[in-house]
Amino acid sequence: MGKKDNHKQDLRALFEGFYETNEVGELTTYIASNSALPGRRANLELAAAFSEVVESVAEEEADALWTLCAKLVQISADEAPVNTPEEFLPFCGVIGLGSVGAASPTRLAEALAIIKKLANDPRWRMREAVGGALHRLIAAQSEITLAELETWVAEGSLLEVRAVAAGIADPSLSENETLARWALTQHKKIIERVLAEKDRKSDDFRTLRKALGYTLSLVVQALPEDGFAYMSQLAAWQDKDILWIVKENLKKNRLIKHFPQAVKTIKERL
Hints:
Helix content: over 70%
Radius of gyration: 19 Å
Structural class: mainly alpha
Oligomer: single chain
């Protein structure tokens, strides 16, 4: 039995105790003590196990799980600073909300509203969890989720825009051309937001730019013909932030390994 499976076994037993008593102490203690924080890498196997256990019983225990995850995400940065075991509680809570929303359409709109707010969290791990939650919602409830995310790209904060880019950027795009084309369209709109931004020295702008430094390559990998054509257009623009984004994506092995000539051609134009 692997590490994730061991965590799933433990979590199932802890969830049963939670359903019976409505007490979260043993569950939250387990999550925090197995978080691998402080450290460079949190226990992502535990987070994945938490998500899968939640999703597996979300239909039968939707109310209880929703209440639990909504409570976890309310743990603030003051209560659970970056790189502490406590930070892993809201991290798992965000992913859990995505799992409940994915399994329960009646919770979808509320899940998206909470996740949108959490996209602006100052903790970088929380923002990563938001991307993971969105990925689950896109996979399970794509039509409504994608329509909502389009409004984030058009009107949302820079960190909300960053959440969309991260949430859609996944190797599985290569298996879904329709979703990949949506992702490319949204990346084009996000690049327009980058170009229009006046305060490019802000932390939020830099966070968005950093994400675009890898998300675009996942979209291009899924749609190489249209994707490289778009990157070629960007390479001709005299904008230092756009050129940085292009250069960073051209460094990704997913492009270098599979499309060496296309990468070389664009590099020669920079």
